[in-house]
């Protein structure tokens, strides 16, 4: 961990010329990557505590901004803003559930600044959907490019790995349902966002919010193994899986469980 | 406006306003072109001030060393308790709050010192260089046990207690067929104004000082500030500028004492503008209330007995707490309903939980939430319709108020109820199966105008012709968004038959007429009353001079657009009058006492009463327990509407504020520390949370009524919370007694019922 300072003026902002240089600088100076700063800045202001050194990311670096069709699906530049994401024709074509979800993410001002990678690193609403889609992170590591599943990315510490892009599988034929529980209708941090994806033969479930972003492999396995279970059993399984991965509030677990049931019906899963 | 239901009911529609002048003023406001105190950045020599706030909620102050701070670059003045020239105390009701703490801090955010520097950053850096040594003291964080804790001030933590009794309540309970006992809790709501507390103190060069600030009572503040600064009141001027919201949160002094002391010390103007974090931490809040209520009725639903024990947490200092307690208890007597016997008591206690004070509703809406919930519970227990139960208990217009005082309604309460029963929201289909459960509920509320209880309450205004021939109208009220200026313009334009564009309204200047505080929904009543006295005086003075200048008989001259008319022809413009007349005589002043009940030696409660019925429709998410308020239909009985957009803005705006208090807003405390410090955590409703609203005005005031205009600044918040919780109950079968509504509690209730089913 790099040391911190108590005045904004003391923060040193490094402006690397390339992604590789950014990784080197972050490693050498212990700097924090900064994209739209929409998540970092309010936290610093609140705590009156800033990192000594920031590494500013540049959306002009190749592959860091924009959305492209690729063989495997869609590749989304890490520094693509949430606003760009919500308006992009490829997203409307490949993943119409995403623009709907983005309407519930923050407000217009934050969506214009906030980036996809920033949202994922902050455990924002996109995490649940992207986890359930088996998204992969394309990283610029110290030892060259690397690809990692998003789920693995969350398990590993978000240290010096720099996300260049996120690859989503082609999900045009999948059934996808997402739901968010916030404190108010809009402009609320998520209490629980649940995503449920029916990708042909398999169901995938993920959640993010107060208990952190998680794929739910145990519940998924139970749903996919073909044995029918009673609703009560399935609810218990989900509740214990949630509890074991950090979701401590029992009423929030109950809400998630009911949201999952609802989303399963939406994607046409009958147990 | 379109007429609905009956001849005396109109549905308000802001778009129907046809006076033409509304756009300029409203658009200036909407587009942020009004000059707020925050904008006063181009005053020559302006310094930036900042206040050092206590890090502890309760501690002995052992040492405050400003040596290093004084030597910091750009610093012009550093002040502490030692530098307060006069009285180091303030407070509207009880002067118990130090400008700067001397030997003890009583809440996290208490002021210890202040700095004026060239820039805000330099001021902040200097604050950081002030060394403070604390010795933490045990916290008084639970209002319910505060009285048993060591006192935060000289005597006990019980700041005030009050009790209203009527009849033999124990005997009345013994005769009850049904008794409901319940505890109610309401939150520590934050004003969350758009513009935080702030302003500028400017030395006038002759030893006096001028404040340009966001405040609610310039004249009253002069008195307190003069004492603090040890100046004659004549040397202190307060200009209450248009400010981005107040809602009671700027009623008490905020930054003025620190800014004034710094300005005197530095000999230069000093601006202090609280940041949002600081405002959240140090600013005033709504009193959280815990109330135990016990209410009983006979088998027919007639209310017989009612008992209330309430505890209000006023935090570290009194501010307007004692008056809030009084208004809470007044509302807790259930002013709209006839109850055979009651015993209503409340205690106001000091704690280390910030400071609570004035807030739109002023304690009344907290009480109404509980009262209306009790009535619904009684109806449920009796298996009767809640509206029917209300109907048989409502007072008539001829009856005295709940404290046996004379009251003046504008319509019979039962008419209001009847109107509410006809709301189209009752006929919407109830969803009981799908994801969203819907329901409609209703609550009634009453609210009085004026400071009440015989407190000194008067106000005046002035009208004059300017040298340029414009009509200048002055009142001491502050404009904090309610746009009282527009209401004054309308009334004057109507009274003089001139265009709104000919009138300049000047507000909030302590050198001008004293209109009293901009609070207690009193401005409209006073404006109307004062203009009624003032305009004839001025018209007579103007006509007299016009007669001399034109040679026409005074009796044949009349006011009209742009000047004075004779037989339908303008014979003298106001400009010509200003140029040729004696301006010093073209001034009229008038003042009046706020209307109180006639023939009362010691007035009780409030004489001018308003009513509101709010019908709410909600949709509750069966999956998660979250609540959407889809519609609010208000029926108001508050006299005549003089400015429809203003009236609508007040009712709808207050209702959304009440919705926030009902669903999301609370400043939770942990060990006397506020747990939210910005608007990304403290969640006020957004546009997406604001429901469709409709305001129907029910008015039966006769043409010759002496008080046809009432103030509606607080009325809209009165019945919102119980209407919403009643609708939630209709949707889910779960009644909530603690605000804000916890979706988890609702979800558990819904889940339990599903399992039972
Ligand atoms: C008022 C408000 C309301 C909000 N409401 C919501 C909401 O409803 N739902 C929701 O999901 N989110 C919400 N957010 C969070 C918002 O989505 C995030 O702030 C935004 O997406 C973060 O993006 P950014 O580019 O600004 O990230 P930054 O603040 O710049 O960074 C965030 C984190 O990501 C890391 N990071 C950024 N880019 C990279 C990269 N390429 N590689 C590696 N690490 C990187 C940074 O080091 C940092 O740790 C809200 C935020 C605010 C301020």
From TrEMBL, chain A:
Q: Which domain of life is it from?
A: Bacteria
Q: PROSITE patterns from the xrefs?
A: FAD_PCMH
Segments forming domain FAD-binding PCMH-type: 6-173
| GO terms for MF | FAD binding; oxidoreductase activity
Gene3D superfamilies for this protein: 3.30.465.10
Q: What is this protein called?
A: Carbon-monoxide dehydrogenase medium subunit
Which organism was this protein described from? Marinobacter segnicrescens
UniProtKB/TrEMBL annotation, chain B:
- InterPro entries linked to this entry: Ald_Oxase/Xan_DH_a/b, Ald_Oxase/Xan_DH_a/b_sf, Ald_Oxase/xanthine_DH-like, AldOxase/xan_DH_MoCoBD1, AldOxase/xan_DH_MoCoBD2, AldOxase/xan_DH_Mopterin-bd_sf
Any one Pfam family here would be MoCoBD_2
The protein's name is Xanthine dehydrogenase, molybdenum binding subunit apoprotein
Stretches assigned to the Aldehyde oxidase/xanthine dehydrogenase a/b hammerhead domain: 31-138
Check the record and name the SUPFAM superfamilies matching this protein. CO dehydrogenase molybdoprotein N-domain-like, Molybdenum cofactor-binding domain
Domain of life (superkingdom) = Bacteria
What molecular function does GO assign, one term? iron ion binding
